Amino acid sequence: MHQTWNQHIIKKENKTIVLETIINRTPISRAAIAQQTGLNKSTVSSLVQELLGEKIIEESGPGESSGGRRPVMLLFNQSAGFSIAIDLRVHDILGVLTDLEGNIVHEQRVLIETTNFNQVMKRLMEVIDTLIKAAPTSPYGIVGIGIGVPGVISNEGEILLAPNLGWKRIDLKAHMEQHYHLPVVIENEANAGAYGEKVFGFEEAVDHMIYASIGAGIGVGLILDNKLYKGMQGFSGELGHMTIEKDGIPCRCGNKGCWERYASEQALIKQAYEAKLIDQNTNDPLHVLIDLANSGDETAIALFNTIGTYIGIGLTNCINIFNPRMIVIGNQMAKAEKWIRPAMEHMIEEHAIGFHQEQLNVQFSSLNMYSTVYGMSAFTMEQFLQERPLLE
Amino acid sequence: MHQTWNQHIIKKENKTIVLETIINRTPISRAAIAQQTGLNKSTVSSLVQELLGEKIIEESGPGESSGGRRPVMLLFNQSAGFSIAIDLRVHDILGVLTDLEGNIVHEQRVLIETTNFNQVMKRLMEVIDTLIKAAPTSPYGIVGIGIGVPGVISNEGEILLAPNLGWKRIDLKAHMEQHYHLPVVIENEANAGAYGEKVFGFEEAVDHMIYASIGAGIGVGLILDNKLYKGMQGFSGELGHMTIEKDGIPCRCGNKGCWERYASEQALIKQAYEAKLIDQNTNDPLHVLIDLANSGDETAIALFNTIGTYIGIGLTNCINIFNPRMIVIGNQMAKAEKWIRPAMEHMIEEHAIGFHQEQLNVQFSSLNMYSTVYGMSAFTMEQFLQERPLLE
DNA sequence: AAACTTTGTTTATTGACTAGACAAACTAAG
DNA sequence: CTTAGTTTGTCTAGTCAATAAACAAAGTTT
């Protein structure tokens, strides 16, 4: 049963609406806010007064007159606080400090040689400490820390399993909150990537979007009805383990014919190895293969075509299942866009239901391996703006 | 941008909350409503007064005292209005008249010999007219007509394509609204079935549920985050056209290896024909095959095992993708539960991700081919209760 | 310079909820 | 059987947040 309504809640909700209007349309006048929201201009005036007092917005110079008195323009104060966002990957850690609009103010990337928990934690905290030190002085300071992880995260933010890190049942959230005394959000990297694409990836709002994170495995973030869909336990999006070939290649998950056995970076590398394009000591095999393809190596091109076709099969399923407005491919395999795209698009065009393709946009991520940190930043920022604790 | 809040909307929303509380916990006292909702007891008293005036609730006899004055118990007036719900299928039309709680008050089922639009419309309107005549006198009368259709329905309720009926681009909603001057809802039969299962199918509330309608083809209704998920254009849920065998059996949708080519009633019948268990003139082949299996025919049992396995492959994908709380199998193939279940459950247990199975419940529909009409009834009832137009 | 327009502030009003008082109707204890 | 206490429901006064309208400030247009 949802909450009942009273004057106090109304005021809080209306104030949030005014703030969101200022964020989305900054700079904007009180009069325009009243027009935009339908609230009475004296209501807007008093709510804006409070937001000014909270230092979450500011008045800028006068705007242009539309025939009468010049308006006073209001701005969102993106430097009122800062957010720390981390993408914890198998081989490295990417950390960014962003303002309250997601602008990256500082960043650090460190390699990790081992997935040993204690070692990784040490490096992780070093990155976070560096970012905390880099944060400018601001009214609210660091409003939260978000950490994207390649694994299964429960609704409570506990890492249940991160197979590529070799981690099981780790309460990273509690550990970090106890250390830093800040709100901490832990999320699956594909879910975070989907959210990052949704908030920062496009010019227009997208209500239904599928983000395919194609790296070592395949994880999918689902933005459905304008929300990140997580399922009953927070475990949704395991499309990497969707069967595309019954009785096919066995997978470590126990199933057979899983999409990620055919269409991931790992699948590509395995086939390249068997085609003797690379050997076990090849460093950064994906780039080696991209370079070979760029140089006209037909075997490498054929391998990318095959992978592109398999990516297309799984995305065709996504299109038929979700009827999305947008599909975004991200993570490592997006680097091979040039060689994957033709076969992938051909598979989709030929096989996805015609109706579903009418307004669909399939693209590779424009956020260049930053999707996940953008998503984690958005999570902590939005949590802060929704709750807006009292100014210290 | 969502609406702003004011006094008028507060009262309306709180009144709706009070009404929903009465519906869900009937009979209930004012004092208990206040306790349940957190609203002040005088607020509840005045809102209840209005609902009594609208004849949507009633006072019943006194309740039991808990130590002081006896309470006056309030009841939802399920006979305040009635809803008409139709399941328009390829071979027949099922129509029901329900009260505002979904209780079936009257029903009619007619066979249709042709899918010719004009003929079907004639029969459809006959059924609706019969149900309208059967409706008791009530304050609000017929509050709406809901029609479930096997096809692609746009967000505006237009039938874009119903391949099994041979229909294209039919604005059934406008046609029916013009004729009956009542609100009309048109929805895909699998979506309606999912909603019917959600509202009427279980003892406890279910936020994430997958309804697999396995008939001539396979349609899937998705209840995600407590809502029916429809996608950008209203076309989601085409899991019948999810590839489970790359380069597999060609499908009329243009893809290959679609789930419904392997796991539908049509797939079963095709295999039974090839196994010479039935011929082209066999009437009601599904029941013939069930009877053969019941009599110990091993070929028939083997066919059901095969179909059960294929159903399990697709449901395994659903489990991995959506992480649902419940999966319900409905429509024609649910009649073969006994022979499908063992192989289906085995496939799921062996192949779905272990985490996802922890709290999952997979079951066959208990609504016995009524899922779709129950869903359509729920749509029109809820639309009415949300809007509650003035009493005539 | 005067009239009009637009933006923003101030004041009075309105309506819905809440707090508390009161009434009605019960149960329990003496 | 009477009195005290409890619970439910109604009534009244108060509070708060939004709105309507008046007013002020600052511009543009005639």
Automatic annotation (TrEMBL), chains A, B:
The lineage of its organism: Bacteria, Bacillati, Bacillota, Bacilli, Bacillales. Transcriptional repressor of xylose-utilizing enzymes. InterPro entries: ATPase_NBD, ROK, ROK_cs, WH-like_DNA-bd_sf, WH_DNA-bd_sf. Belongs to the ROK (NagC/XylR) family. One of its GO terms (biological process) is D-xylose metabolic process. The keyword Isomerase does not apply. It comes from the Bacteria. Pfam families: ROK (PF00480). This is Xylose repressor XylR.
